[in-house]
Structures are given as C-alpha cells and as structure tokens.
Amino acid sequence: MTNPDDLPIPSTAPSGATGVDRRLLEILVCPLTKSSLTYDAARQELVSEAAKLAYPIRDGIPIMLPEEARPLDA
C-alpha cells in the first residue's frame, strides 16, 4: 500500500498512544550504561534502572540525551 506521495506506509502500527514503534523500543538502550530500558506508559518515559534515569518520550520520539533525562528517586 502507498500513500499519495508514493512512499511506503509502515506495515506495523505504533504502540499505544506514544507513536513509538514497539520494535524501536525493543532495540533502544541507555546511552550511558548500554543496559535495557523499561517503558513507563503512564509517564511516557524510558527508564534506565542502571543509570537511575528516565528518558522522556515527546511527540512519540524518545529523547535519549542524558541531560534531558529525569533522575529517578532513590
């Protein structure tokens, strides 16, 4: 299936309301520790327990910059 601009339409729908593809969420890792991330749907964040940081998801885009991450409470 194609769109009016003749570009292919993705075959998988984005996950939930985030607009982030589940496959992308599965391959992303913490940029500091390279450890896996946990998706927090309620806060729209990707959580790195190893780094004690939560990376925001804005408009369906994970912001994987440590300076943009929220520190987790101890």
TrEMBL record:
Superkingdom in the source lineage: Bacteria
Record-linked SUPFAM superfamilies: Trm112p-like (SSF158997)
Gene3D superfamilies: 2.20.25.10
Entries under InterPro entries matching the protein: Trm112-like
Record Pfam families: Trm112p (PF03966)
One GO CC term on file: cytosol
Family membership: Belongs to the UPF0434 family.
Name of this chain's protein: UPF0434 protein D3273_05080
Source species: Lichenibacterium minor
